[in-house]
């Protein structure tokens, strides 16, 4: 039994080819190497302490929020008939989108196959800040241009000096940035842009929700809390998933992608070691 306070200093020992073994760095060491900002290291470390299942997993799915952590295990099982833990897959929430690139790097430093799942705003914000996409990327710029056009006709949308939607202190009832991005993603002119950004981030093993967020694709319209999640999960256990999930085709593709690029990769590594 590993105590929560011991997790940051715990070494993972992995099998290598033949009879060799490799002692991986601790989570604290990996964070110091891969994450520059101290506050992000502290937040990531706290989350990793709280989600100790990654210590005993060969693969990890990094997610933004509580909706994913609550519902994805049930969605995963409904689609592929095995639970994530049966695939040695841990689902980890590092405490927000800004911590995802660093957590991905840390997992890989620890020898754990990892991928991430992000909302649409990640593409124009954190992906650029983390140098996964360039600020002058044609599809990032096209997105910003279309958002600016939306704001010209909707005074509830506030665009900041950096070209991104932001909260407007003078209009507290204005649209939140995430809501603006989701509204944009539903427009006809956005589909080619979201698809292109999706493909570019997949290169980094990051799946972008082209419809805005997980709630859109699952078909959840209520509050982002257990009052909406629990009934949805109950339906998944009682009915076929394609009757419950609004965009079942995209969600199927996501689960297949996770199993094909992360779970399979960890199994192949283990097979080579045995």
Automatic annotation (TrEMBL):
<dbReference type="InterPro" id="IPR034139">
    <property type="entry name" value="TOPRIM_OLD"/>
</dbReference>
<dbReference type="Pfam" id="PF20469">
    <property type="entry name" value="OLD-like_TOPRIM"/>
</dbReference>
<feature type="domain" description="OLD protein-like TOPRIM">
    <location>
        <begin position="55"/>
        <end position="121"/>
    </location>
</feature>
<protein>
    <recommendedName>
        <fullName>OLD protein-like TOPRIM domain-containing protein</fullName>
    </recommendedName>
</protein>
